[in-house]
Structures are given as C-alpha cells and as structure tokens.
Design brief:
160 residues, rod-shaped, 2 helices
C-alpha cells in the first residue's frame, strides 16, 4: 500500500530546528538571569549580614571611624555592584522578551507547516479511499456481470 510523503518535509524539519534553536537561546538567557538573580541575592545577603554585624558588634563602646568609613565604602561598592547587576538584568529581560517573541513566531511557523502537512495527508487519504472504492466498484461490477453471464449460460437450454 502506498504511504503518504509530505513534499515539504524538509521545510518542516528546518522550522522545527529553528524553533529548537530559539528555545535553546531563550533557555541560555533564562540561565543567565537566574545567575544574576543569585548574585543579586548574594549581594543583598552580604550587605544585610554586614549591617547586622555593624549594629551588634561595632556600635558598642569606642567607635572606630576608620572602620565606619571602610564600611561605608563597602556599602557603596555593593550598591554600585547591585546597580550594574540590575542594569544587566534589565537588558537581559529585554533580550528574553525578544527571544520569547522569536520562539512564539518560530512555533507559529512550524505549526503552519504541520497544519499544511495534515491537510495534504487528509486529501491524500481521501483520494486513496476514493480510488479503492472505485476499484471495488469495478471489481464488483465485473463479478456481477460474470455472474449474470454464467446464470444466462446456465438458463439456456441446449438445442436438441
């Protein structure tokens, strides 16, 4: 029996490949975002820990102004790191949005090809069914004609 062969199968494979690439690109961006979020969390935790240490241990008794100045510089440096990281995360978020849009478009293009393949396969199946029915009708007609001829031959009386 004949099998359906989609003539644009290579285009469909290519579109699936493009969609997979877009998915990998988005996944890489999401991994970078998780790394940046983790780094931001570490910065926040370190600043919180440092401030807690300052409150509990450094503000009692004689105050060391050089330590307070160093602490202030540390906090400012951490804020700068957090600001730079936030800017990177903002840029990364825009890139992720673009990557998602590209992935959606690639998936849409793939689905278009899949729908086309489904429609063509359905047409092919319908055509095959129509051909098989035509062949069955032909065979049935031949069998009926043969049976009729045989019946007519049997009903004829031989001449004496």
């Amino acid at each position: 029996m004949a099998q359906f062969k989609f003539p644009l199968a290579s285009v469909l494979r290519h579109r699936k490949h493009i969609e997979d690439q877009k998915q990998l690109a988005l996944s890489a961006l999401e991994a970078q975002m998780r790394e940046h979020e983790s780094a931001m969390g570490q910065i926040r935790a370190a600043v919180r820990e440092n401030l807690e240490d300052l409150r509990k241990n450094r503000l009692l008794g004689p105050i060391d102004l050089s330590f307070l100045a160093a602490h202030r510089r540390y906090i400012l440096g951490a804020q700068r790191q957090a600001t730079v990281l936030a800017q990177k995360m903002s840029l990364l978020q825009r890139q992720m949005d673009e990557a998602r849009a590209a992935l959606v478009e690639a998936a849409k293009q793939r689905k278009i090809m899949e729908k086309l393949a489904e429609r063509q396969k359905q047409r092919w199946t319908d055509d095959q069914t129509r051909r098989e029915l035509a062949e069955l009708d032909d065979v049935t007609q031949k069998m009926a004609a043969s049976a009729l001829m045989e019946e007519q031959a049997q009903t004829r009386e031989p001449l004496p």
